[in-house]
Amino acid sequence: MKRHNPMLDALKEVLPEIAKRASETEELRKVPAENIALLKKVELHKAFLPKAYGGHEISLPQFGDCIAALAGACASTAWAFSLLCTHSHQIALFPKQAQDDIWSRDTDALASSSIAPFGKYEETEGGVIFSGDMRWSSGCEHAEWALCGFLRENAEGTKDHCFALIPATDYTIDDDWYSAAMKGSGTKTLVIKEKFVPEHRIQKAKDMMEGKSGGFGLYPDSKIFYSPYRPYFASGFSAIGLGIAERMLEHFKESTAGRIRAYTGAKVGTATPAILRIAESSHQVMAARAFLEKTWDEHAEYAEAHRYPDRATLAEWRTNQAYVIKMCVEAVNRLFSSMGASNWYLDKEAQRLFRDSNITCAHAYTDYDVCAQIFGREIMGLEPDPTLL
Q1: Is residue 71 a contact partner of residue 247, using CB atoms and an 8 Å limit?
Q2: Can you give the residue ranges of the Acyl-CoA dehydrogenase C-terminal domain (predicted)?
Q3: What is the pTM of this model?
């Protein structure tokens, strides 16, 4: 779908330079500072920053198109930077005092995350003492803050999944990201040892999904913040899967058109197998984009109308994006499996696209086996299974 998107227009100007550094990004095992500077230059990092702090508050469909385009240039950069962006939406649901702690001092400040409840805590006056080895924090070396998950006992004796906002001065980074895919995302571990987190920088995940968090309703004129945090947090995953698949379609055409089989001299690009594969994968990726755009548009319509989604709608949104990734991975794998052994060399773009595509479905939020259970139970009128994320 063609939509007015000034942010995307500006982003396209810097994508060639980011694409040139894709191999360097993998070698560094983190996003190069030059990529971050380019993305900040076009102000993509302010996509979900509240306007009160100089942000743009662009719609989710506009943001998704930007991340898909960025993923086509460098998936590792898109993975890390999309999360740095979407965390701003989550922080905007924290109390005003927490937002001021971050953005009143620096409107360019970003947060990475480790949202799984790895954290340990002790209650203390005015907050908690927080410790933990907080894993999977993508883009952490370019962040000034981190959102960290932990389970906190409540008055009923059960535990709430909570998020603590912690400044980078309170943790060190364990350089442990050695991965076969998304090598340049810098998804490292934050090491936190007995740091005080005040109460205003702690929020329950459930409250942030139900419109009960400390900052909910703080921006009544906004078109994006009357919304649960999770669809925005997860939006980048499917956009990245789509962007990789769309780039693989282009790359397959470019590399296959003039390819000659070494042993027979046959022209691969005019042979029936290549034609059938590119046709089916193209249909699959076009269907994935249409389905994802429909879901993005629904997110935007609900938020703009200040209409809060019910459980069934949230389940559909959650699982739609995982199905999009499933389709995109299938499309990529169909093409890569026929591209020949030379494309397995580490300097070839195709193998990088293949690796990065397949890791997009490995995230806890994009695991389709989990998502199919969530959606199937909702369709059948069953209560949600608490063991499913």
Answers
A1: yes
A2: 236-367
A3: 0.97
